[in-house]
Specification:
Shape of chain A: globular
Number of strands of chain A: 7
Strand content of chain B: 35-45%
Strand order of the largest sheet of chain B: 14-15-16-13-9-12-11-10-17
Oligomer: heterodimer
Distance between the termini of chain B: 36 Å
Number of helices of chain B: 5
Largest sheet of chain A: 5 strands, mixed
Radius of gyration of chain A: 15 Å
Structural class of chain A: alpha+beta
Strand order of the largest sheet of chain A: 2-1-7-3-5
Radius of gyration of chain B: 18 Å
Strand content of chain A: 25-35%
Distance between the termini of chain A: 43 Å
Number of strands of chain B: 17
Shape of chain B: globular
Chain lengths: ~120, ~300
C-alpha cells in the first residue's frame, strides 16, 4: 500500500506538493508539475533521477525521511548527517521542508581517472 | 579503406552504486550477456554480436561515473608505436600488465587533458559466446531485452577538448566527422577511427573527467521503439527520446542506469570515410544537431553528467 501522503514544502517559495511515503520527492514533484506546481519557477532541477548526477541536491530543514544510495561525489556521509540529500533518493516519512542546495561545479584536478 | 591502428572502442568501465540493480539493468533490460565476475568483484559483460571477451565492466563504488574507456589496436607492434607517439606528444604513459582483467592482454594508459583515462590494448581472448562463424545463424541465441548488439561509443565531458581533438588526430589517427563551433570556440567534437560516424565524442565542460553517456548499438528504428517499451514497462529513467540526432543522423533514446549513469541506444547513423569533409554545426541550428525532431537541447544535455 502506498500509505499516507506527506506535504513537501520548498523553503523560500509558496509552493508545496504531496508525496507518498513509498516514492521519491523528485517523482512526486514531476507529477505535481503536470497540475501546475512551480510553473513560475521555484522547483527542484530534475536530472538522472537515480542518484548519480547531483543536480537535485537539497537540504532537509525539517521532517523525517530515509534516503536511497546516492553518489558520494554529491553527498558525503558528513553532509548526509547534516540533512543534505539528492531529492531523487529522498523518501519522506512525514511532512518535509527542503531548500535547494546545488553544489558549485568543480574545475579542480580530475578525480575520476582512478583505477582499477 | 582497410582499418589499421585503432580498430574500435574496446571496453568501458563504469562505476555503479548497486551491483545487483546494475546487472538487472545491463543484462535483463539492455540485453548484454554476463561473461564473468572477477576476483575483485568487477563484473564483465558483452553484447551478443561482439567477438571479444568483454566490452563493458561494472565496478561497485561509492560514486557513479566513468573509470576508463579503452580502444582495441590492430597489433602489438602498433601498440608500442602508439605508446611512443603518446609520450612524444606530451602525455605520460603507464602500463597495465596482462591479466589485470580476465581475457585481456597488456594495456597502455594515459589521462587526456580533459581528465579522462584512455587505455589501448591489442590482445584480447575470443569470447566463448561469440557470434557464429561456421554456416552462421543470424545470432547465437535470440537477443534479450533491448537487444543491444555492442558497446558502440561514448560521449565524455571535460575541459581542453581542442587539445583532445589534436591528440586524437595527431597521435591516434582519428578523423573529425562533425563539430559544433560557437562564436567563442569549439563546443563539441565527434571523432571516428572507423566507418562509423563516431567512436568517441567530447563536449566542452568546466569539470574534468565527466561522463555523459555510453551508447549501445541496436539494429533498427523498430528496435529503438521496442527499447522504449521496455524502459516504460520497467520504470527506467528516460532523459529524451525516441528521437534522432542531426549529428551522426542516429536514432536514439537517452536514459539512465540505476546509478544515474546515462546510456544511449543508438541505431542508424551514416557511413563515414576518412576523406569526407567535417560536418559543421553553428549556434543557429545547434538544437537540430543534438535532437533533430525537438530542434532544441533539453536542459539536461549540457548539465547532467556523472
Amino acid at each position: 500500500m502506498a500509505g499516507p501522503h506527506h506535504t513537501i514544502h520548498l523553503d523560500g517559495t509558496q509552493g508545496s506538493f504531496a508525496c507518498r511515503g513509498d516514492e521519491t520527492v523528485i517523482a512526486a514533484m514531476e507529477r505535481a508539475a503536470w497540475f501546475g506546481f512551480a510553473k513560475d519557477g521555484g522547483r527542484i532541477p530534475v536530472g538522472c533521477r537515480r542518484g548519480g548526477c547531483g543536480v537535485c541536491r537539497v537540504q532537509v530543514l525539517e521532517g523525517p525521511y530515509r534516503v536511497e544510495a546516492m553518489s558520494r561525489t554529491h553527498v558525503t556521509e558528513a553532509e548526509q548527517q547534516e540533512g543534505y540529500a539528492l531529492a531523487c533518493c529522498l523518501v519522506p516519512q512525514g511532512d518535509l521542508v527542503l531548500r535547494l542546495a546545488a553544489k558549485p561545479a568543480k574545475t579542480a584536478t580530475p578525480t575520476t581517472a582512478e583505477t582499477p | 579503406m582497410a582499418l589499421t591502428g585503432v580498430l574500435r572502442p574496446g571496453f568501458i568501465q563504469i562505476r555503479v552504486l548497486d551491483m545487483e540493480a546494475a546487472l538487472t539493468h545491463y543484462v535483463d533490460r539492455l540485453g548484454l550477456d554476463k561473461v564473468t565476475t572477477g576476483p575483485d568483484g568487477r563484473v564483465y559483460l558483452k553484447g551478443w554480436d561482439e567477438f571479444d571477451h568483454h566490452s563493458v565492466i561494472l565496478r561497485k563504488a561509492e560514486t557513479a561515473g566513468l573509470d576508463v574507456m579503452a580502444f582495441k589496436i590492430a597489433s602489438e607492434a602498433d601498440l608500442d608505436t602508439f605508446a611512443k607517439r603518446t609520450t612524444a606528444w606530451g602525455l605520460a604513459v603507464d602500463h597495465v600488465a596482462e591479466g589485470e582483467q580476465p581475457g585481456l592482454g597488456r594495456r597502455i594508459g594515459f589521462t587526456l587533458l580533459s581528465g579522462h583515462r584512455i587505455e589501448l590494448y591489442a590482445t584480447v581472448a575470443l569470447s566463448e559466446k561469440h557470434p557464429p562463424v561456421k554456416n552462421p545463424d543470424v545470432w547465437p541465441a535470440e537477443p534479450r531485452g533491448m537487444k543491444a548488439t555492442r558497446f558502440d561509443h561514448a560521449l565524455l565531458y571535460g575541459p581542453h577538448i581542442d587539445q583532445n581533438l589534436k591528440f586524437f588526430q595527431e597521435v591516434l589517427d582519428f578523423s573529425l566527422a562533425e563539430k559544433i563551433e560557437l562564436p567563442d570556440g569549439l563546443l563539441a567534437i565527434w571523432l571516428t577511427c572507423s566507418n562509423k560516424a563516431h567512436d568517441i565524442a567530447f563536449v566542452k565542460h568546466a569539470e574534468p573527467g565527466k561522463f555523459h553517456h555510453a551508447a549501445f548499438y541496436l539494429e533498427t528504428w523498430m528496435d529503438i521503439g521496442h527499447a522504449a517499451d521496455i524502459m516504460t514497462r520497467y520504470n527506467i529513467s528516460i532523459d529524451i527520446g525516441p528521437t534522432r540526432h542531426g549529428i551522426t543522423r542516429g536514432q536514439t533514446i537517452y536514459f539512465f542506469d540505476p546509478s544515474g549513469n546515462r546510456n544511449e541506444v543508438f541505431a542508424g547513423g551514416y557511413t563515414y570515410y576518412p576523406d569526407n569533409p567535417t560536418r559543421v554545426w553553428d549556434e543557429n541550428e545547434l538544437g537540430k544537431g543534438i535532437f533533430y525532431y525537438e530542434k532544441q537541447l533539453n536542459e539536461r544535455f549540457l548539465t547532467v553528467v556523472t
